[in-house]
Amino acid sequence: MEEIFVQSGKMGVVIAVIAAIFIGLVIYLVRLDRKISQWEDQNKTNTYG
Amino acid sequence: MNSSYIWKFLGVALILYSLVFGLLIPLKPGIVAVSPSIANGGDTISLAYTAYNVDYSAIDASKINAWLLFDEGKDILADKIEVLSANEANAIFRLPLLSELDQSVVSSTLVVSDPQHGYALLPSALGIRPKKSNGSLSGLSIKYDTPDVHKVKGVSFPFRNILQETIRNTYYHVPLWFSMIILFAISAFYSATYLRRRDSRSDLYAVAYAEFATVLGILGLLTGAIWARFTWGAFWSWDIKQFTSAVALLIYFAYFILRSSVADQDKRARLTSSYNIFAFAMLIPLLFIVPRLTDSLHPGNGGNPAMGGEDLDQTMRWVFYPAVVGWILLGMWVSQLKARYLIIQRKIEDKFII
Amino acid sequence: MEKSWYHCAMNRWYALWQKEMKSHWRSQSSLPAVILYVISTTFIVFASFARIDDRSWMVLYWIIVVLSASHAAQSAFRDTEGIEGWYYYGLCRVEEYFFAKVAANFILMGVIASLTFASLSLFAGTPVRDPLLFFLINVSAWIGLALLFSFLGFLNAKVDGQRGLLPLLTFPLLLPILLQVIKLSSIASGSITDTSYLADIYILLAVDALILALSLLLIRYLWQS
Fold first, then answer.
1. How far apart are CA B340 and CA B204, in angstroms?
2. pLDDT tens-digit readout, B138-169
3. How far apart are CA B351 and CA B349, in angstroms?
4. Which of the two ends of chain B, N or C, has the fewest CB atoms closer than 10 A to its terminal CB?
5. Hey, is C171 helix, strand or coil?
6. How far apart are the first and last CA of chain C?
7. pLDDT over 70 at C70, yes or no
8. C touches B (3+ CB pairs < 8 Å)?
9. Do A10 and B19 touch (CB under 8 A)?
């Protein structure tokens, strides 16, 4: 595991950092998406029905 | 296209730019390891070194220069270079006695240079123990002229020994903090607007901005920990800047807990707006003044100027500053999305109550 | 005209301050509880450490002071509701009450710190080499802590039901003060030698000034409806 990060001039660390940022952003967006979906489901009948 | 998308796409474009150029531009060559690390004065040694970002298989060994650099610009040139593999070579040195020096070990920097890759250096590469002797080896004393340093044209990032390729994280880890501070500032501004105008819109904008800023802060701490593991040796080393950033996040966690513990909408907005402004103002001594007076592993602390000189060279600025702007714009976009969602939610809630 | 307004304000402030001090003194939960709190914390510390060096002494001193002050500040807001009535009937201004509270808290900080100092010195001796500097640090820290605990105590008093929120709100915010103060105290105890500590004192005072300015600016919004 250690070797993957350290080989070729520690390039693995850069990839890990970029991946962490991307995963963090996606988790935030998925949570927001789910909250919006919940509200849509609750208000389907009231807003349009 | 709607004009309100221009800055959003600009943000994304700047982040893409920082990804492409931050990852593609090569590093300058460097020296990763040498052996032996200590030798006696007067010996003839074969110093084996491993270089980074060079390809010795393609060039003539006689064109490679290697020399040991001492204080005050004194140096000794290697007699011969023997190429071992694509990135390894032996430099044969006849070391001086150094008997005139009254030190137990004299430290020297190894410099390697060739016309194709340019120069690379490793500070404190070889320690030499001076030999006390009355010998007549006068030919081996230190010279004072410096051999040619090859400079190669082209764009490249500096090579730092411990950092190596992770120097690129400057474009991905550091902008998260810049963006976080700006988003917290915008959040505090919306809180102040709320206290002046008493519109729940501003309050919801303040929450949304503080929330995404906190997300960026958590990501900054996380990426910092990954980076630190492979450069400083541990995920968490109680560095003052790691510590104060974590405390800054705690302040905003307290903000969200405060929000969740007041039921009445207006009272909640009033109390948390006051706290938000207070918290942001307290971030300034916490993040900018206190760390600067304490020793730190981070650049720009312990009395050093922040982000200047050695730590951020001209080429890096061209990638770093666009990345900062890009992350600020992306942060504003996501925060606004969240705020707009909160406003719609509030409208629907109010409709039900009436 | 100007003078009489000032006079009235000072009189009201003095009355509020007296009320604060009396409530601190009288209520069964406040001052005696704080004394007990300080002494028992010191006991626990010594039961677990037995011997401590100068730097740890200072760190423990400040931790005990902050914990006790937080405990005291939390129990000091039990009867704010009465004073809030004064405010709504226009009998006093929030700022006046706030400063009465700050003054009372400042004195309380002094009492707590002296008690902690006395009990720590009794058990472990005193490492203070520069008493004047140590006193100066203490006073500037008390000002900052009293302001912070008063402001956030006001805020916390408005949070319905959940009174345990105060440590959560204050501890991260008082860290800039605490970090400066521990560093300066180590200089006063001689465990760090640093001749240029004046800059650190200025920063501590600047943080105090910042908290003062923010409290003055924001306090009126906490009691509005």
1. 8
2. 444 555 556 677 778 788 888 888 888 899 99
3. 5
4. C
5. helix
6. 31
7. yes
8. yes
9. no
Mean pLDDT to the nearest integer, B64-88: 84
Question: What pLDDT is stored for residue B311 in this prediction?
Answer: 57
Distance CA B238, CA B296 (A): 9
Chains A and C touch (3+ CB pairs under 8 A): no
**Tokens coding C167:** 């440590």
Amino acid at C191: S
**Number of other CB atoms surrounding residue B112 within 10 Å:** 26
Please check the confidence at residue C32 and state whether its pLDDT lies above 90: no
Distance CA C134, CA C127 (A): 11
Tokens found for residue B211:
């929330």
Distance (Å, whole) CA B51 – CA B293: 37
Task: Answer whether B295 touches C (CB < 8 Å).
Answer: no
% of chain C exceeding 70 in pLDDT = 80
Residues facing B69 on adjacent strands: B75, B109
Determine whether the interchain pair A24/B52 forms a contact, defined as Cβ–Cβ distance below 8 Å. Answer: no
Report pLDDT digits (tens) over B267-288. 899 999 999 999 999 998 888 8
Complex ipTM: 0.85
Alpha-carbon distances, residue A26 vs A32, B116, C169 (angstroms): 10, 43, 30
In whole angstroms, give the CA distance from residue C77 to residue B137. Answer: 85
Secondary structure (3-state) at C22: helix
Q: What is the mean pLDDT of chain C?
A: 80
Q: How far apart are CA B234 and CA A21, in angstroms?
A: 20
The CA distance from C81 to the nearest CA of chain B, in Å, is: 16
User: Locate tokens 């001193």: which residue?
Assistant: C61
Q: Are strands B80-83 and B88-94 parallel, antiparallel or unpaired?
A: antiparallel
Percent of chain B with pLDDT over 90: 42
> Is A23 near chain B, with CB under 8 Å?
no
C-alpha C224: how far from its chain's center? 25
> Is pLDDT above 60 for C28?
no
The first and second tokens of residue A47, run together, are 């807003």
Give pLDDT tens digits for C192-207. 776 677 888 898 999 9
**Which residue, B176, B170, B291, is CA-closest to B222?**
B176
Task: Determine the pLDDT at residue C179.
Answer: 87
Instruction: Report the pLDDT value the prediction gives residue C167, as an integer from 0 to 100.
Output: 85
Residue B157 is classified by DSSP as B
Structure-token match 């800039």, residue found:
C176
Contact B254, C169 (CB under 8 A): yes
> Is B265 touching C (CB cutoff 8 A)?
no
The answer to whether the beta carbons of residues C215 and C147 sit under 8 Å apart is: yes
Size of interface B-C (CB pairs under 8 A): 82
| Residue B182 reports pLDDT greater than 70 | yes
